[in-house]
Design goal:
The protein has 78 residues and is of the alpha/beta class. It is 21% helix and 27% strand.
Length: 78
């Protein structure tokens, strides 16, 4: 089973920060145990860091907790 649902949100920080942290919410998969969450968080952070050379803050959230849209996919959240 997948480790995530595929739903993510990039959290937009308030303007004024010199170097804002990249903050990403990721829904973990339904069959992922609480014990697996720290490892999953590290795996996602490492994968992003290797692609864009930025270490993100990953916030894992339960499946179904990120709002869905029938039309356009929502990627950003304030």
């Amino acid at each position: 089973s997948p480790k995530t649902t595929g739903e993510i949100r990039i959290i937009l920080q308030k303007p004024g920060h010199i170097q804002p942290e990249l903050w990403v919410k990721v829904e973990y998969g339904e069959k992922v145990s609480k014990d697996e969450l720290p490892t999953l968080e590290q795996e996602i952070s490492k994968a992003i860091r290797e692609k864009i050379l930025v270490t993100p803050k990953i916030e894992l959230v339960p499946p179904g907790s990120l709002e869905r849209s029938e039309y356009k996919t929502i990627f950003f959240e304030r």
